[in-house]
Amino acid sequence: MTANKTNKVVVVGAGLMGTGIAHAFASSGFPTVIVDTNPESLKQAYNSIEKILGDGVRLGKVSEDSARSSLERLTVSEDLSVAASGANLVLETVSEQLAVKKAVVTQAAAVMAENGIIASNTSALSVTEIAASVPSPERFIGMHFFNPVHKMKLVEIVLGLATNDETVAITRDYCEALGKTSIVVNESPGLTTSRMSALLGNEAMYMLQEGTATAEDIDTALRMGFNHPMGPLELGDLTGWDTRLSVLRYLHSTLGEKFRPCPLIIKMVAAGRLGRKTGHGVYRYEDGKAVPGSGLKGSYL
Questions:
Q1: How confident is the model over 69-89, as pLDDT tens digits?
Q2: pTM of the predicted model, to two decimals?
């Protein structure tokens, strides 16, 4: 099997990541189905993809014919067994709960194409452990995309214990067809990007807590000094500090003391200052935009 444009792709989970991944496949020429048990989530996902394509047309980056064809290749379904029937690639993006992911891939494996590939977008759970629930774990792999998918070019391909070379080669073909750059990572806590990002964001919070610099100046240092598109505190607000705290606690338990969560993160989560989604994190937000001068100043020792 190869990653040709006749392959049926099924994306399970109509959240932010599932929506972005489905858009990537449909706009790259693959017949794509988004599956979710919540009809409202499916409607929102479809509308979001329609908006991304529409914005592309208005900006002159996508032709009207291409946008229309992409939407014609995209369908939605509430029934995984029906949607995954004969699928060549099933990619799950459901909640980071092992039992939920296992149930999804078990159901999909029973009906998809015999030589099809099952992929997980997880960045935290064990690919090997999820793969253990399907008959052919050698055809199971991790495909970790980044948000927003239509702008971010990297995909981490994560190897489980049983993943074979053919599955890796085909998965890299899919990434190339999407216009993405792929890297191959052996399964490990935090992979490469989550591990580095968590460490950087945690250290930035320690600096803020100690009063080394203001939030704005810490973020400016990374943007201007290292050409990062976004500072680590801005990124934490975007990701959500509750999510960041969960990742740090997991990495602390698996990789040791250097990932111990900064106490300021714990305080912020306890206070409900989770970032953009609550309107207040390291910065305060109005209409989805950071209020100038609203960043924490330190010191919080």
A1: 999 999 999 999 999 999 999
A2: 0.83
The answer to whether the annotation marks 277 as part of a ligand binding site is yes
What is the tens place of the pLDDT at every residue in 95-127? 888 999 999 999 999 999 999 999 999 877 899
The alpha carbon of 125 is separated from its chain's Cα centroid by a whole number of angstroms, namely 13
**Where is 188: in which H helix or E strand?**
none
The two tokens of residue 211 are: 């009063």
Say whether 20 counts as a known binding-site residue.
no
Tell whether residue 15 is among the known ligand binding residues: yes
96 annotated ligand-binding residue: yes
| 69 appears as a binding residue in the annotation | no
Name the average pLDDT for the chain.
Answer: 94
Burial of 33 (0-12, 13-18, 19+ CB in 10 A): buried
297 annotated ligand binder: no
**pLDDT for the residue numbered 300:** 61
In a domain, 1, yes or no: no
Which of 186, 217, 239 is the last residue in one of the domains? 186
The answer to whether residues 108 and 172 belong to one domain is yes
Amino acid in the structure at residue 251: L
